[in-house]
Amino acid sequence: MNEPENKLALWRVLLIDDEEVIRRGLKGYIEASKLPFAVVGEAETAAEAVRQIEECCPDVVFVDINMPDMNGLDMIRSIQLHDSTCISVVISGYDHFEYVRQALQLKVFDYLLKPVPKSDLYALLKKLDAELQADLKKNRDDLMQLKQEQCQDLLMADGDGNDPQSSGYVLEVQAYIEAHYTDKELSLQQVAQLFHLNKSYLSTRMKQEIGCSFNEYVTELRMKKAKELLSSPFASMRMSDVARKIGYSSQYYFSRVFKLNTGKSPLEYRQQFRRGQ
Questions:
Q1: CATH code of the domain in which 160 resides
Q2: Residue 252 Cα distances to 105, 144, 265, angstroms
């Protein structure tokens, strides 16, 4: 795995192409652009690409459409199963409508024809940087919103939390959550109705008695279960399956929540654990 030479680089790039001259050219262009990208890995086969993806945890992959052991589009499908947040760019020597159509269905970021002009690559890198910066800002905004919701829970506190019945409610709610955290429909509104409580009152009581609101408790429990699944030495579970097993219908949303709470993507967490074995 290559170490980033650009010390200001924010975004990690993996190049997947069986032609060494193409990889060398792309790497040179990217480094010369002075934009916040670093080529952290290269692969000339699909098998090598899978290994590099797990090691490098790239933000962006450039994928050749015509790989020797796997179609580039199938490679992108495989990447999306491993890490839905990774952005894919197709590089191809073929201007075939069917390839372009399938690439669009896979929601690739762009489709570049070889040989790639420097001006086109530079424009693409600028767009990629803007997209990644926007995603980063959204993650920060989501974290800020979560903190604001936590503050709101405290401001809505009703009383001093010494109601002798409240502890019993909270224990029952905790037990219910632990039995139903895999249910993607689990919500504060649903549980409050089940226990005949006001939802704000319930969340506030939980905050007072166990130190976290309803939503925080559910998220912490799901993150704990996700870490258990990701750190199992025998597990090679797809991220979409991990998400479903802990109550998220969207793999992308799960990846964002996991990164907000741990500072790492699920794939990065799993790879860090494996390297520590």
A1: 1.10.10.60
A2: 17, 19, 10
